[in-house]
Amino acid sequence: MLPDLRLYQLCSPSLPIGAFTYSQGLEWAIERGWVNSADSLGDWLGSVLQHSLVTLELPLLSRLHGAFRQQEEARVEEYCQWLLCCRETRELRQEERQRGAALATLLPNLGIVIPPALDASVRSTQLAGFALAAARWDIAPRDALLGFSWSWLEAGVMAGVKLVPLGQTAGQQLLLRLCETLPAALDRALALDDEHIGSSTPALAIASSRHETQYTRLFRS
Question: Which residue, 26, 60, 152, 54, is CA-closest to 99?
Fold first, then answer.
């Protein structure tokens, strides 16, 4: 039971790493009119889920979890660099590093010791800190991936609720619908081999790069 409770804390929106301040290009996509309803928001998030989370973040999170448990420092560094290389815009790379640094600052205060040799890697990406905490708190790999997916999905829906805007009920209905796709998404992510790890989200990359110079904005990415 305790690992479950630790997971709830790790993926809570109240975790002080600033997750609510990022939209990952969604803010520009809404301003442009690409996303303008609950249905189009669902299409946007569903596409990113299938073509980025399933094929990049979740497979690497699973590998990082195993690398931390086996104390394979070289593997941790490799997977962190792999993720950063797949971030296609300046904003997305900054977000990764900022959230990673925030989580690396928090974890020691929660009793998670960061190996000195891996401090730079853990600070470079949120994924590494999440995997380290999950490994130290005995959170099962699949549970860790499910919690991370839920946290990402909730943040995306809530950003859309604010920006489209949508009503809170419409947001919860969309979250309910998209969550139905998570079990199959996790199966795909866990079965992916190294050769196929990567992302293919050109619309997100365009939106993120255009968001860097968006005149008025609420979100940092």
Answer: 152
- Homologous superfamily assigned to 2-10+23-211: Urease accessory protein UreF (1.10.4190.10)
Q: What global pTM score does this model have?
A: 0.95
Q: In angstroms, what CA-CA distances link 161 with 4, 20, 125, 176?
A: 28, 12, 27, 14
- Bond prior to 183 in cis (omega within 30° of 0): no
Residue 13 confidence (pLDDT) above 90:
no
